[in-house]
Write a structure and sequence with these properties.
The complex is a heterodimer of chains A (359) and B (488). By secondary structure, chain A is an alpha+beta fold. Chain A has 11 helices and 19 strands. The chains are: A alpha+beta (359), B alpha+beta (488). The interface between A and B is large, with 86 and 94 residues.
């Protein structure tokens, strides 16, 4: 059984009565959007469309089921973009799915992730009420920050209806520098050095063991000298991508083209200090991985036949958390997730009758 | 008497010099930077260790006594105003920078650490803490976190919540929780983000993990004079629309400039409106952006344009800007600071309307604000010794907030709701929104013990009172006026 809604009233009814619901948009992160147990899927992809976009204001409001690609196209006409680089856009990812999964892409390194750009939203809470949090202006400290709560809530704290973002001017041009530092340790050291500046990188990815994939964006005529400066700072020879080659490389990263068939994709929040320990665990399990955002996130491709419990245990030991994105549905959160009694009480307030699935 | 039992228990926890109960000892804690409100707590404890805070909260919960956490007491919305019959937990001695990790660009600090002491600890590594409220030389990280404080440079860098990665906090019943971690990427619901800006209603942060940023290679500051704030506001809209991303864009009007010159003498040009734009980044990129900025400014009707990249000049420019609130004390005995936000493209319209309202009411308003993100700070000048002057000034402040709501903005950009704008929150949000906020509050804190009366109307207990009124009126609920003033 599946419930399809294209009106907010129907959505509120579906939350208020009948079986428990789990919302989904395009289903690009099926481990999060496929219900288990007695819950039924709630298809909200019909709640789509851009409601307000004023290029001079650099803010945009759209219904949660709106595909990211449609939003990016509208912004692109005015030289603007979503700086948090939502993944799976080409596969059809919706704004609501990106917020609910809390996924920011590699190019979020420059200006921040989805939490830094979502400024307001409306959602249906567990009582079926349509609630507004935040606003439509870029700066706002009024009331509890419900938009932040909804980021990463995986459709289990509310059903997103409408989202407002601040947006930024898109860099005129981009270029990519690829350099092999020889080892994980050397690559992490170089990332730490680059993180302190002075070069402003758009993306800073690490392909283990030691390859850094770094992107610069900005005025076209400055890119060559900036790329040369970046290579000079790294002190090793490197390859440079421009134009279509640069675009294609990052498009593949955004769609996770490197994830082998039959693997689950898992987002793990880390710092550079966690990487050596995590990398050893992943090597033992035969998992491949890519570190992004200056080694603040590990995208893990966990083989389907490897035990998820092993990864859960390893993440607990490291004191970090993971979120299942693809593969068959399981309890989505792995490792040390935190929140404790605060999380339990917030959850009880927002969904008192347990109308949504457990996290 | 629950308070008596609490005080008895606190005597076992604190030495006498750190448990203040004498009238003279309590007076400095009766108010914060919103001095029009005043309330006397039963006691103030000066905590020095996290365990003392946890134990104090547990005891308050056991005895049902409300508590207010206080850092430096710089809140402009009455965020750390005490509750009559409750206690104040002073956190300024809980002020250790526990660690600075240069490779991971992190600092772990206690809540009483002064905002710019974080940057002081990070600067040997070429790093800085980005949020820069004007009060950054005195305000504390705990207060910044509770009220999601901003600052001039959050145009590019974001607010406090964008820089807090993890929090160890004590909930209002004494339970200690860990939210978030050290990564810039949260996994699962962003509990850390939810705790930030909750105005102390969810408990007290004990230990905070902050994100640090690299210090920019080059900073370029431009000053431009305009014939009106409206013309300055239109120039800001053009810069925003141009695709440039300045790190700060500020406007001061003639009154604010006059006040700054009377106090810290930043040598601003004598113009009806002054625009400050700052760019930062790689040297070559800044040079390119500075040239584009100059074209826009020159075409916008600006006069007396000056630029600098010298650290001493910039320091003086920002000293003038950041001291503007207190400098207004040179112009009038009292003032109210407002903190509304409007869409950036309607800045000119909002300023024109504020000017009209000011003329109509016959009340002088100085304007100094974060133009780049539409965050207005009208300073409403009055003389509290004149009958009805405070009331009239509050009336005008309220009308300005309603203007911000009408234009699609917010009643607070960075000072928080506190007690000051509490009655305006339901004008900005619908009843269902308010109902969920109340449900969240009571789920986390059923006794409404933590910072009772801030942001949300308390459902029970005495309410804060205002200076100059019958002190006995403090027990009447909802006694707070629609907007209140800060005395200079």
């Amino acid at each position: 059984m599946s419930v399809v809604v294209d009106r907010v009233e129907a959505l509120r009814d579906a939350v208020r009565s009948g079986p428990r619901v789990l919302p989904h948009g395009a289903g690009t992160k099926p481990a999060l959007s496929t219900p288990t147990g007695d819950a039924v899927p709630l298809d909200v992809s019909g709640l789509a469309g851009i409601l307000e976009y004023d290029p001079a204001e650099l803010t945009l409001t759209a219904l949660a089921g709106t595909p990211v690609a449609r939003v990016s196209a509208a912004l692109g006409e005015h030289g603007q973009y979503l700086p948090f680089d939502p993944p799976f856009a080409a596969a059809g990812a919706t704004l609501g799915g990106v917020v609910a999964a809390g996924t920011s892409g590699a190019n979020a390194f420059r200006h921040g992730g989805v939490r830094d750009f979502l400024i307001g939203m409306r959602f249906v809470d567990g009582t079926g009420r349509l609630v507004t949090g935040g606003g439509k202006v870029v700066k706002n400290a009024a009331g509890f920050d419900l938009p932040k709560l909804m980021i990463g809530s995986a459709g289990r704290l509310g059903v997103l209806v409408e989202l407002s973002f601040k947006v930024f001017p898109r860099p005129e041009a981009t270029t990519t520098v690829i350099a092999d530092l020889g080892s994980l340790e050397a690559a992490l050291g170089a990332l730490a050095e680059l993180g302190r500046g002075p070069l402003d990188l758009d993306a800073a990815d690490l392909e283990p063991p030691g390859t850094l994939v770094l992107r610069l964006g900005g005025a076209r005529e400055l890119l060559s000298s900036r790329a040369a400066r970046l290579l000079g700072a790294l002190g090793v020879p490197g390859e440079r991508l421009e134009g279509e080659a640069d675009a294609a490389r990052w498009a593949d990263v955004a769609e996770f083209g490197w994830v082998p068939e039959g693997c689950r994709l898992i987002k793990v929040g880390v710092t550079s200090a966690d990487v050596p320990g995590l990398d050893a665990v992943l090597a033992r399990a035969g998992a491949s991985t890519r570190y992004s955002l200056g080694a603040n996130v590990a995208w893990v491709a966990w083989p389907r036949d490897a035990r998820l419990e092993d990864l859960d245990g390893a993440l607990c030991t490291l004191g970090v958390a993971g979120l299942l994105l693809t593969g068959p549905p399981e309890r989505p959160l792995l490792g040390r997730t935190g929140g404790g009694a605060f999380a339990a009480r917030v959850r009880a307030a927002i969904d008192p009758d347990a109308r949504f699935q457990e996290l | 008497m629950p308070v008596a039992a609490l005080l008895e228990a606190l005597r076992g926890l604190y030495p006498p010099q750190r448990l203040l109960t004498g009238r003279a000892q309590l007076v400095p804690f009766e108010s914060d930077a919103l001095t029009a409100f005043r309330a006397r707590p039963e006691a103030v404890v000066l905590a020095e260790r996290q365990e003392e805070v946890v134990e104090t909260v547990r005891l308050c919960h056991r005895e049902g006594v409300p508590f207010v956490a206080r850092g430096s007491g710089t809140s402009l919305s009455g965020g750390s105003l005490p509750v009559e019959g409750g206690i104040v937990i002073a956190l300024n001695r809980l002020n250790r920078v526990l660690s600075v990790d240069a490779d991971r660009r992190l600092a772990v600090v206690e809540p009483g650490v002064i905002n710019n002491h974080v940057t002081r600890a990070a600067s040997p590594h070429g790093l800085a803490y980005a949020p820069d409220p004007s009060s950054q030389s005195v305000c504390s990280i705990g207060g910044n976190l509770a009220f999601n404080s901003g600052g001039a440079h959050c145009l590019k860098h974001g607010m406090t919540a964008n820089h807090v990665l993890g929090i160890k906090a004590v909930l209002p019943d004494g339970e200690v929780v860990t939210l978030g971690g050290q990564s810039t990427e949260p996994v699962g619901p962003d509990w850390t983000g939810m705790f930030c800006g909750s105005e102390g209603l969810f408990g007290i942060a004990l230990e905070v993990t902050l994100r640090l940023i690299g210090v920019a290679e080059c900073t370029h500051t431009l000053l431009a004079g305009y014939d009106s704030t409206r013309a300055g506001g239109e120039a800001v809209a053009q810069v925003v629309a141009s695709g440039l991303l300045p790190v700060a864009m500020e406007i001061m009007d003639a009154l604010a400039i006059e006040a700054a010159e009377a106090s810290v003498k930043p040598s601003y040009p004598k113009v009806p409106a002054l625009l400050i734009v700052e760019l930062e980044g790689e040297r070559d990129v800044v040079a390119d952006h500075a040239a584009r900025l100059r074209e826009i400014i020159d075409a916008s009707g600006a006069r007396e344009v000056t630029v600098t990249e010298q650290i001493e000049d910039r320091a003086l420019i920002w000293k003038g800007r950041k001291s503007a609130f207190s400098a207004v004390g040179w112009l009038a005995p009292d003032y109210i600071v407002q903190d509304g936000v409007v869409p950036r493209s309607r800045l000119g319209e909002a300023l024109g309307e504020i000017h009209r309202m000011s003329e109509e009411a016959g009340i002088r308003v100085a304007n100094v604000f974060h133009a780049g993100d539409g965050n207005l700070h009208p300073l409403i000048l009055f003389d509290g010794r004149q009958d009805g002057a405070l009331h009239d000034a509050e009336g005008l402040a309220g009308e300005i907030l309603r203007l911000c709501i009408r234009l699609g903005g917010s009643i607070t950009g960075e000072h928080g709701v506190g007690v000051e704008k509490r009655s305006f929150l339901p004008e900005m949000f619908a009843e269902d929104d308010m109902e969920l906020m109340r449900r969240l509050r009571t789920a986390v804190d059923p006794g409404e013990l933590a910072n009772r009366g801030k942001m949300l109307e308390p459902t029970w207990g005495p309410d804060p009172d205002r200076t100059g009124e019958d002190p006995g009126a403090g027990s009447s609920p909802n006694a707070v006026p629609p907007a209140a003033g800060a005395r200079a």
